[in-house]
Design brief:
It contains four helices and no strands. The chain is globular and about 40 Å long. The model has no long low-confidence stretch (mean pLDDT 88).
Length: 83
Amino acid sequence: MAKGSGQFVVHATSADVVDAIEKALAPGPFVLGPTFSAADVYLGASLAWAGKFGAPRLGESPRIQDYVKRVTARDAFKRAAAE
């Protein structure tokens, strides 16, 4: 923690981040297991966006790719993306 800042500083590689996401999604099918939540709205949209720009390892992870497909296939996601 930076002195006096009250904030944590985390040093992680993109591989570390992808590993953490894959681990979080392991119980599946969503971040909270069987329940779709706001966490999925945020993470799914972020991963879909990052994947469009070639973020490292996202396209190589079947677990992440399947998750993004599940989230982006939802009617609410499609409506929001169309606006």
